Each structure stands twice: as structure tokens, then as C-alpha cells.
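Hey team,

Sharing the asparagine synthase (glutamine-hydrolyzing) run so nobody has to redo it. Sequence (613 residues) first:
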Amino acid sequence: MCGIAGFFSTQKDYCKEFPRYDHILNQMKVRLYSRGPDENGTFLAKECGLAHTRLSIRDLKAGSQPMIRQRNGYRYVIIYNGELYNTKELRNELIQRGEQFETTSDTEVVLLSFLYYGTDFVKKLDGIFAFAIFDEFHEKLLLYRDSFGVKPLFYTFVEDTLVFGSEPKALFTYPGCRARVDKKSFQEVFGIGPARIPGSGIFQNVQEVRPGCYLSFSKYGLHEVVYWRLESHPHEDSYEDTIKKTSALLEDSIARQMASDVPICTFLSGGVDSSLVSSVCSRHLQEKGERLTTFSFDFDGNEKYFQANEFQPSQDHPFVEKMVSYLQSDHHYLSCDYETQAAYLKESLIAHDLPCMADIDSSLSYFCHQVSKTHKVVLTGECADEVFGGYPWFHKEKFFQDDMFPWTLDLMPRMELLKDEVREELDLTDFVKNAYEQAVGEIEVLPTENETETRRRQIGYLNIRFFMQTLLNRMDRTSMRWGLEARVPFADRKLVEYVFNIPWEMKAKNGVVKNVLRSSSIGKLPDEILFRKKSPYPKSYHPFYEELLGKKLKEVIQEEQAPILRLIDKEKTLRFIASVKDYGKPWYGQLMAGPQMLAYLWQINEWMNMYQL
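Structure output:
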């Protein structure tokens, strides 16, 4: 993976001030070094400046960027962040049409596909990506993002200049582009966060290219094109054929995402999702005489303090041991102590440029840091629950009754610590309701579906477009902060398109959660793993961790100039810090309960300080 950044204007001539704008490009590049520590480069033309930092995964010698190709005396330049999984097919297709290649990199395949097929060529791409193409002939810049937003791409305008980058921090190095916030920023942070409305960059006037879209900017203005969207249609396959097709799609997605010129590894939790990915990878590597490396995560003290609850019924370690024995993998058990978990709250904030999933992010950032010391590519089981219906809100009637995001049914924990006047001004209930209604209005329901099935389809769509996006953001920022490329085989476009339309009576046949996934994986995993009850990413239950978070937040709000005191009520917050936290009642998803609220508020204050908001 890589980091990309740049700027474009039809009204300027950057070459007239070459040293100045070349310096700006290098500053933008520096801000993204962690995404691509192996190599970097810049390109500056009259209308356009491009910067790239590279994490070398494919074509290690000849894949340098920015990559330039010429046609009829004009330059076409690409900076690319991503992995293309149908490189071989597209390359052969282009060769048959007379195109000539200078490298074996997927970057060149993307650029030559654009030159041959035109702007809509993106529909042919199978992969995860965010990239920019400068078209000198048409004096145009194009920004592309993959179907599910696995790779990030933010942008803003400074007068007549479009400024873009993989992360917001790159934008703020451009002259005149400052980090600012407005009312909507805090409505999202307190009402939707740590999720974001698709296309929102939280900062004032900062947006993100929406998943499944590309932008075209020229003298004719900025135009957005939706090249892919999730569609509803009747499922016509029998149950038996559905299982067979799902199995084939899963196998194909995992195998294709193993493509790499450096060794790969997998995250292994002992759950069905990561275990299936690890099993397929292990088998393919064994066929080549190689051994898979796997990693699992836990927290110091959890063997003593773990509290089973509705959302986290069991610990991972015993199941990891069974899978390691089954795979015969080179396994590494990683553990995080509560001091480190708290210390990495700042790292995860820097990685996101925004408040995020608190210690859920900070711990993953730590684990990715450890994995990055030996590997550059990891395959994960992320997104399976969103696609196959693994969360409680797909199954329990209480989540069907309210027209709200099912992972945040109760907004009160988000509002009760705000100052009265702030709560009234933000009007979070109305803001979140409007965001919800706009989101469910995007998905078509089938006339033949009853009210329950319609609700399940809506929940499925919301999970893919909102909840899954949050976890993909988390996975990208925590891994790329340390130069580790995380791949997500369950976020495969063909797989998601197919599974989205499988009826619930198949998805949860005989009441089995994620039945289609489990049934399509029979023979690839031990039964005790295959039918293990879902348990999400682990978190610390150490009481000293909660005490440490309370101490950190108390220190913050004792400072008279703490920016968060403009928003939250100090006395209410002190009482909250002193109260006993309920781990079994999350205010976001399955993991963010009382202790995570302490960490989230601390991150909001640190964020406001960091950017002088």
C-alpha cells in the first residue's frame, strides 16, 4: 500500500513557482511516510502536483511512482494506493489489444487500462484502491476509490485548487488549508462517531471520495460519477447451489488476495472468519512447500478479569490453540498491557486525524506495530459479520423496532455528559434520524419482501455502508500507520453482491448465525471452530485500565483551558468517571461501553488540542 497526495488547478501555473510548490509536495509526502516508508516521489506540472510514498509489495524494482506514460505528446500520470487482484487478466487483455508494458506492477495495468478504455475503466478493476490520474491532454484530474472504501481518499478546495490526500493530515500542509470544525463536525463526532456519514471528512469543507465513486475535476468544474452501487434483486439459486457458489466465491477471493512479492501472514482469532481465511491461505502455501505465519491478540490480565456478556461470550485463546494445531502454522501470541493500550490512544488518533474507536483502535494499532516488524502483508477476517449477518442486530427483534442505526439504538450515553446548551444546539436526535432516513432511502426493497425481511435488508445495507466502513477505516489506519498492508477478502465485490441478496431463511437456516458462511466452509475447519458462537475482537477487562482512563480524563477536565470543557459538563463528567462502568451495554457496536466513553472523550479533547480547533 501507499500514501498519495497532491493538488490541481486550471487557474495556476505551478511551474512558475517550482521551488515553492515542489517543497509543498514534499511536505505532503512527509506527512504520509508511514503509509509508504520504502520509496517516494513527486511530479509537478503546470496544472498539477502529485506526491507518492510507497510500501513495496508488487514489482519491487520497477513499480516506482508517480508513473508517467505518454500518448501523442501528452503525459498521463498516476499515483496509486491499493492492490489489484485481477492484474493478470487485465494485463493479458491489454496485450492482446496492442498495449506494451514496461513493468509487472498493477499500477501500470491501471494506467494503461485508463488510456485504453477511458474513465469508466474502473468498472473492470477488482481490488482495493484509491488513486489519482492526471490527464494532461484534457487538463483534468480524476480521483478514484474502490467499491467499499477499503482505501481512503480525502479532498478539499482552497480557492480554485483541489487538494487531496490519503489522510486529512496531508491536506493541512497546503497553504491556506487549515483544520477547522463547525456544528456538523460535532454532530457527527457525538451523534454518529466513531462512524462517519459516507463522504464526510468531519473537518469543515473536507470531504472523502465516496466508495464506488470517482471525481473528475477540470475547467468545467467538479463532477462525481457513481460507478458501482449495491443493488437488490431476487435470489434464484437453490439452497444447495447457494452454498456451492458462496464456497467458490470465498475460495477465489482469499486466493486472489494472497498475491504478493513479499511473504504474507494472517490474523487468527479462533473464530470462523479469520480461521477460514487462515485455512485457505495455509493450504495454498503448503502446496508450494511454504508455511503460513499467524498472529493472535489478547490483553494482559484477561485470563483473570474477563467478563462474559451478550456481546463477548468467550475468550479466544483456547480456540486459537486448536486452529494453530490444525493449521500447523508458525504462530505468534501477542499481548498488550493496559498501560500500552492507553499510550497508543494518541497513536490511533494521529493515524485517523480524528477521534476513533478509542482503545479498540489503540490496541489494534499496537498489534499491527508488532506484526509490521516481520511482515508487510496480512489477510484478515474483517467484514464477514456485516456481509453474512453475524451481529445481534440481525437476529433480535428489539433491533427491528426502532428506525435508528441498530448499533446505536440509545443516544443518551452520547448526550448525557454534554452541557445543556450544547445538547440543545447540536440536536443529535434529529441529526442522527435524518442521517438514518437518508441512508435507508438509498436501498431498494423488493415488493415480495414482508416487513421483517425489508428491515433485515435495510440493516444489511446500513452495516455495509456505515458499520463496515468504520471497521475498514480502523483496519487501514491502524495497519498503515506502521507500513502494514491489511487485506479483507470478505469485502470482495462479487461475494458481497451475491450474499447481500441471499434470503434470510438461508442465511440463518435452522437458527444458525452466519449459516451460509459456515455451511460453505464445511471440511475447511474443525467443527468446534466452524460452529463457535461469535465473539468479537477482544478488549481489556483489567480494572486498572478503567482507572487509568478515568485518571487521564480527570486530569484533562481539571485544566481550565481544556477545549472539551466548551462541550461537556465538568461535574457530570466527574460523576461519570467515579461511577461503575457497564461492559455489557455498549453505546456503539459491541465493544464500546463505559470505559471506551472515557477514552473517546479523552481523544476528542486531544484532537481539539492537536488541531487547535
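Residues 543-610 form one domain.

Ping me if you want the raw files.
A.
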